[in-house]
Amino acid sequence: MTLHSIVIQKLLSTNAHLGRRVAAHHFKQFTYGTRNGMAIIDSDRTLICLRTAAEFVAALAQQKARFMFVNTNSLWDEIIEQMTKKIGCYSPSMNLLWRTGGFLTNSHSPKKFRSRRKKICFGPTQPPDCLVVFDTDRKSSVILEADRLQIPIVSLVDSAMPLEYYKKITYPIPANDSVQFVYLVCNLITKTFLLHQKSSASSVAQLEDTREQVERIEEGKSVNKDELLVLPYSLLPISPGVDRTEELLDKLVVLKFNGALGTNMGFHGPKSTIQICDGLTSLDLIVNQIEALHSKYRCSVPLLLMNTTTTHEDTVKVLEKYTKSNVDIHSLKQPQHKSSGGQSSEDELYPGHGAVFLSIMKSGTLDVLLSQGKEYILVVDSDNVAATIDPKILDHLIENKIEYCIEVVPTAYDADFSNIGSRLQKFELAEIAQSSVKHSMEKFKLVDTGSLWVNLRAIKRLLDTDTLKIEDISFFDRAIGVNVPHSRSLSLNKTSDILLLKSDLYTCDEGVLVSDLLSRFKSMPDIIGLDSLKVTGDVWFGAGITLKGRVTIAAKPGMKLEIPDGVVIENKDINGPSDI
Questions:
Q1: How far apart are CA 400 and CA 153, in angstroms?
Q2: Which residue, 450, 441, 431, is CA-closest to 491?
Q3: Where does the sequence pass through the membrane (predicted)?
């Protein structure tokens, strides 16, 4: 019997599969069918949703986020009380809060409230980072309040839950809310918390070392100018709240380089106007990203396009379709440099970011931005179509007064590839490639994605003193790198890149390219013992799979190869079901 079968049997023993007599239309995706007029919930879907919710809780627990557990069913009081005691969220004076709800929209000012047991508690002084609801039928008002504050919700949902409340839940867990299943969920949350509390304790020394290195950088002591401190993206604080995000974005301006032509791909015009995904261009993607941020938050993020002589006129024509957009777009033209022979030189056209900022300052744009309260500029390279405007990075830069930050990703050629993204490290600048095309990647450990965050006042200070050279980080008081996910580095340099981006492997969600590759995995395989993996063809992975050694999986043309749940594949070549 596989591990997956054992888990499913455990779910069935809790009666999690027994739904109500009427299943709402939107809930039918979670049902297996009906029996005696009663909806039968698909245990496989329950397990997938439960695992997804647990991974989300684990990620927040690792960041020491604030949780609120909401319950009004007295049958579950003891279960939830024991859980909150074990994970450190229990307080005798606050115990009643778990059952009476959150008063989320009034959380900015503590309120006294009286329960049916005539006891008085105080509401929380800060809104939680996550809301866990065990009985959605009785706490629909809390769900509405959490949705209004954009607080993620993890909740049990049943077959009769109205669509109005269901669509507001971030991580639904479809199941019958029996006492046994609630105990199972609380037990899972408890173990998740305890596991990550242990892992957090083991990384305290590393975090302390991080603080010491940051302090040394801030004080300017013993800093090697040829090295860059690279911070893993996973060590950044959790996403800021709505108010904080609005405050951060109002301090940001985005500049996109728009000087590259698509002639090497058979396209006559700016590279930013080539359609790459769902009929959208890379220029459309960045505009859509900013529009999505404007619709979610009350903020204003202007977009600057730095054109060249060869792209300026075509870009001005393209910008006509954005006349109804709520994005403030400014099209700038960088002065053209001449080679020694008097002819235009493509290599000299962009002699460095410093010349771009100098052009912005001479045009008066820099002073205007500073007068508008802008503090940071995100510079996006013309070749990278997956650049993302990330408030988490901006928050870290502002909080730590960092003037210069580049986004990097590890190269696949580095022997320490699996560890680079998980710990703080220093890298020599010679180990960071500026382009994945122009260099032999075996020489480098990191690749610059082309996304650069710079403090505007630092730029003005260096320009005023005539010392700006943007490629030399030694001119900035504080500089770091952030090791971002590989999904944020997608180049557009070759015809094959266009084919890949136009394929059904990628879709666009609010200006961000999203890969459908993850849909092929019920859950991520265990790869701690894996040396190499090569997958070709139409391959789908089940849950609880373990890969070890050197594994090759190749589906024949026209065949869908499904790797079953719970299997262990070690040093094998898989070409069909018979090889598993």
A1: 30
A2: 450
A3: none
User: Strand, helix or coil at 106?
Assistant: helix
Q: Which position has the higher pLDDT, 91 or 186?
A: 186
**Residue appearing with tokens 């030189």:** 345
Task: Name residue, tokens 């630092």.
Answer: 458
Q: Are 153 and 53 in contact (CB under 8 A)?
A: no
Residues 6 or more apart from 362 whose CB is under 8 A from it? none
Q: What is the DSSP string of 182-220?
A: HHHHHHHHHHHHHHHHHHHHHTHHHHHHHHHHHHHHHHT
The residue ranking higher by pLDDT, 294 or 131, is 294
Report how far residue 80's alpha carbon sits from residue 85's, in angstroms, rounded to the nearest whole number: 9
- Side chain identity at residue 537, one-letter code: G
Cβ atoms within 10 A of the Cβ of 371, count?
8
The answer to whether the beta carbons of residues 352 and 346 sit under 8 Å apart is no
Separation of CA 511 from chain center: 14
- Name the amino acid, one letter, at 521: F
The answer to whether 286 and 305 have CB atoms below 8 angstroms apart is no
> In sequence order, which ranges of 297-390 are alpha helices (DSSP H)?
312-318, 346-349, 353-362, 365-371
Mean of pLDDT over the chain: 76
Percentage of residues in the chain with pLDDT exceeding 90? 15
Q: What is the end-to-end Cα distance of the chain in Å, rounded?
A: 16
The number of beta carbons lying within 10 Å of the beta carbon of residue 306 is 26
Distances (CA, A) of 294 to 288, 325, 378, 455, 509: 10, 11, 17, 22, 15
Single-letter code of the amino acid located at 271: K
- Determine the 3-state secondary structure of 566 from DSSP: coil
Place of tokens 């904080």: 244
| Sheet strands (E) in 284-384 | 303-307, 329-333, 376-380
| 85-to-81, 154, 162, 184, 209 alpha-carbon distances in Å | 6, 20, 33, 16, 31
Domains of the chain, each with CATH number or no CATH: 3-109+119-199 (3.40.50.10490), 223-336+352-512 (3.90.550.10), 521-579 (2.160.10.10)
Per-residue pLDDT, averaged over 340-344, amounts to 43
